Amino acid sequence: MSAPKPPARRTSRITTPDGVGIAAEAFGAETGPGVVFIHGFSQSSLCWSRQTASPLLSDLQMVTYDFRGHGASDKPEDPARYKAAELWAGEVDAVVRAFGLERPVLVGWSYAGRIIGDYVATFGTKGISGIVFVDAVTANERRFYGSCNRLMRQMCSPDVAENITATRAFLRRCFANPVPQPLFELLFGVNMLVPHHIRAALFDRVADYDALNRTLDVPVLVVQGALDEVVAPAMAEHITEIVPNARLDLFEGAGHAPFLEAPERFNAALATFVREVTGKA
Questions:
Q1: pTM of the model
Q2: What is the pLDDT of residues 175-233, one digit of tens each?
Q3: Separation in Å, CA 40 to CA 12, 31, 73, 161, 202
Q4: Any idea what the Cα angle at residue 29 is, between residues 57 and 107, rounded to 5°?
């Protein structure tokens, strides 16, 4: 008897409270614990492909989306559409509601540490079961960053050649180990879908979530690549220190994207965390 086929990928076009069209997809089970994956700066939902196709996570309701200005979502021209916390929070809430998720776990990579902070600042934690910060940004002190800030500024350049060169160099620095060329080209392609002025609007937004993080009352897992050159491990250590009952999982030998460099370990850790915090084994 053959194994049952997993449910088909479900796609949706969601409109945020401020009228931005968001491209989103659901994977895995149609019932069960919910997980919302939020990508990083200049990336897209495609970065989570090693999670959405994983047998370890197939019994979860997994939702990915391209946040505003990225991937297949709308790209408003006005920089103000990328500044206010309420806009980012409303976007996350719209995605959760569109798929009918009940108290999902939010998984945020890199820049998405800000987005999760915006969501909690606006809606509190009553609508979520837990948070997974993945090499995430939540504060602005220089010691929390690696050596890629100059490249990220060059990625905001209107000079196309400079922009492309910086984007390729930045993406290479995201990994401690070589990644398959098709994966690299996919990630590079989605990077280049983000206009330079939208990158600039995101890049200049201050991260100041320490006071909020000290009040978090849901379980928090902090995942960090030990060899991250974008966000220093000091950031993860800081988050773990100030968030009540947070747990740090340091991935030795991995860079800024441990979920891509060590997907089986990451997926196992995520599956365990989700089942613990939702009470659904």
A1: 0.95
A2: 999 999 999 999 999 999 999 999 999 988 889 999 999 999 999 999 999 999 999 99
A3: 20, 27, 14, 23, 11
A4: 50
